[in-house]
Write a structure and sequence with these properties.
By secondary structure, this protein is mainly alpha-helical. It folds into 2 domains: 1-53, no CATH class; 55-165, no CATH class. Helix content is 55%, strand content 0%. It has 9 helices and no strands. Helix 2 (22-30) runs parallel beside helix 6 and helix 7 packs across helix 8 (139-149). The structure holds zinc ion. Residues 77, 153-154, 156-157, 165 line the site of zinc ion. Zinc ion binds at residues 77, 153-154, 156-157, 165.
């Protein structure tokens, strides 16, 4: 896992970027100690003491359990939510610091980030599950997902669905 110094430095860099992602920064902030969070916010005194919940173990858990939601949103062509999924993964995998961050082409946001998700599925050996507690992936969604991951137009869009690949 990345050190507190590294996390602080990355938040500084992302905060200066014109197109920085709010989700990404939020996840990084969650990985800071109370003391460092106060420091980051110009010695803010109104920050409640809290415990950091991110560890290598919980990050891997997030990476695994979030995938069902991420797949559903890609298959449903929900642009905003798909974008947020990718932002979460960006933060979690960077924080995890296991060498996989640089193996993913984060800028290749084709088809709602589907190729990025597929790469994450492969890197972390995440089962393409059909359901978790809140979301279920229909059997046909697998075909849609894998077609989109290749950068191709999904079967629904080919049949005239105008939500758009
Ligand atoms: Zn489509």
């Amino acid at each position: 896992m990345k050190s507190q110094v590294e996390i602080l430095a990355r938040i500084e860099i992302l905060s200066d970027e014109f197109v920085s992602s709010v989700e990404d920064i939020c996840d990084l902030r969650r990985a800071l100690t109370t003391k460092n969070l106060m420091l980051l916010d110009n010695n803010a005194t109104n920050i409640e003491p809290r415990q950091i919940t991110y560890t290598d173990y919980t990050l891997l858990e997030e990476i695994n359990t979030y995938m069902c939601f991420a797949i559903c949103k890609v298959v449903e062509h929900k642009g905003f939510l798909s974008c947020r999924s990718i932002d979460h993964y960006k933060a979690w995998i960077w924080l995890l610091n296991d060498g996989n961050y640089d193996k993913i082409y984060w800028d290749d946001y084709a088809n709602y980030g589907c190729p990025i998700l597929l790469k994450i599925i492969e890197l972390y050996n995440i089962p393409f599950s059909y359901e978790n507690v809140e979301y279920s992936v229909e059997k046909g969604d697998r075909d849609i997902f894998y077609t989109m991951a290749k950068g191709q137009i999904c079967p629904n869009c080919l049949e005239g669905d105008t939500s758009g690949c």
